[in-house]
Amino acid sequence: MADGRGHSRSALEVALERALAALGRGLYRGFARRAIASRLAGTREISRTRIELARGAPGLAGLRIAFLSDLHAGNYFGEDDWLAVCERVAREAPDLVCLGGDLINLFEHETHLLRKGLALLEPPLGRFAVPGNHEYHAAEEPQLWRSVLEDCGVEVLWNRGLRIGRGGASLWLCGVDDLRRGEPDLAQALDGAADHEPRVLLSHNPDLFIDAARAGVDLQLSGHTHGGQIVFRGYTPLRHSRFGFWAGHYRREGAQLYVGRGVGTTALPLRIGAPAEIAIIELRREQAERGPS
Ligand SMILES: [Fe+2]
Predict the structure, then answer these.
(1) pLDDT tens-digit profile of 38-88?
(2) Tens-digit pLDDT profile for residues 244-254
(3) Domain-located, residue 6
(4) How far apart are CA 14 and CA 10, in angstroms?
(5) pTM given for the model
(6) How many separate domains does the chain show?
(7) Considering the domain boundaries, does residue 5 fall inside one?
(8) Is 66 domain-assigned?
(9) How far is the CA of 100 from the centre of ligand 1 (A)?
(10) Which CATH number covers residue 212?
(11) What's the CA-to-centroid distance between 11 and ligand 1, angstroms?
(12) Rounded (10°) CA dihedral 247, 249, 250, 251
């Protein structure tokens, strides 16, 4: 299923990442810093996607999830940027807020940058998070990341799930560890789900979708790819999905996947052809939408 815990980056990947980060830091200074930060913030979009689910009771129809991944806090994304994003999310009044990993960039203390913004988010059905590969770049066992989030009232779904009730209906919300750097355990995350409940899975890496579809997941929410982040005529140097799950909505074996382009940036403080995204996902019932035939 997974590439395996401890799948480490190659020396070339590490060298390239460091060179890009150094170049990015060089660009991100003084007047240029303000101009770049304001451009990144000004182009960040709110996307709205309706997902029709075959499974689930009528009470779930209209449930809205704010899905935010790849903040990379500490890397061209500071406390004020996060506050501004959270103000926009709070105005959307979602039922759930799900954080899809890579919330920090390289250091666990960057998690503290999220405290003030998280205090603005009080969705009625809760706030949830899973780790991404960058949480593992920050620490072999990102426990400080976890404890800061939990202190802020965020439930970390680390290979586990729970029942979310709404309008007399329920869904199984679960999350897994990072596919590339952690030890995702889908069976453990799905353990406890009832047959009639839609299973919504948070997995930082979209490539878990192949396994998730086979395991009966109805909807997977992922990030990691940044939508390519820098895209020229369909080509991107950031190839973060082996199966082409770059951005947007995919279907496979009755399951669905939504890949967000991410809230922040990595490597270079630049996005071309792949603007940052605050994803609002609205769940609908498949049959209810079509009406009587
Ligand atoms: Fe990321």
Answers:
(1) 888 888 999 999 999 999 888 999 999 999 999 999 988 999 999 999 999
(2) 999 999 999 89
(3) no
(4) 6
(5) 0.91
(6) 1
(7) no
(8) yes
(9) 9
(10) 3.60.21.10
(11) 19
(12) 170
